[in-house]
Design brief:
Number of strands: 12
Structural class: alpha+beta
Oligomer: single chain
Largest sheet: 8 strands, antiparallel
Strand content: 25-35%
Number of domains: 1
CATH superfamily: Umud Fragment, subunit A
Radius of gyration: 20 Å
CATH topology: Umud Fragment, subunit A
């Protein structure tokens, strides 16, 4: 009877440890988010579910072209593409993106349609993040969103996991 009880306790401890490991992975390594809007179309569609890498930005820099999730009016979040990095000048002229006066080809967009816009210099630890669906979006161009602080970017979108017929790697350019 005692060996049965010991086996039960050992199995219970294993189950608890397994659950704690899963919780740790979810909190610190990977997350799952639903794309609630059409802002990232055609890259992501409304109701797509994506896997978020929460760990990589602890060891690597955020890069232009990364699709990221960031806090917006906590606890809510938005998904967007990093367009401008700290220290850069961002300008949209005639619907085209210029970074430090150099044209950037945004080939991932269906259409380049962005009103003229300029930021002379993005402050340190801040990022200019736009949606891929520029005509119908909510991003850094909107005063209520503005530039995004590095600490508010909580992960990189890496894989679309739903719907099943669209499972695949999310292209970060």
């Amino acid at each position: 009877m005692i060996t049965g009880l010991i086996k039960f306790i050992i199995n219970a401890i294993k189950c608890v440890l397994f659950v704690l490991v899963l919780i740790g992975i979810y909190m610190f390594v990977l997350g799952v988010k639903e794309n609630k809007y059409t802002y990232m179309s055609p890259t992501l569609e409304k109701d797509d579910w994506i896997l978020i890498d929460k760990l990589s930005y602890r060891f690597n820099d955020i890069k232009r072209g990364d699709v990221v999730t960031f806090f917006y009016k906590n606890p809510s979040y938005l998904i967007g593409r990093v367009v401008g990095l700290p220290g850069e000048k961002i300008e949209f002229k005639d619907g085209k993106l210029y970074v430090n006066d150099e044209h950037i080809d945004e080939f991932y967009l269906k259409k380049e349609n962005t009103e003229d816009y300029i930021i002379e210099k993005i402050p340190e630890n801040m990022y200019f993040i736009l949606s891929d669906n520029r005509l119908h979006s909510f991003d850094s161009r909107d005063e209520s969103v503005g530039l995004i602080e590095k600490e508010d970017i909580f992960g990189k979108a890496v894989v679309r996991i739903w719907p099943l017929n669209k499972i695949g790697i999310i292209k970060n350019y």
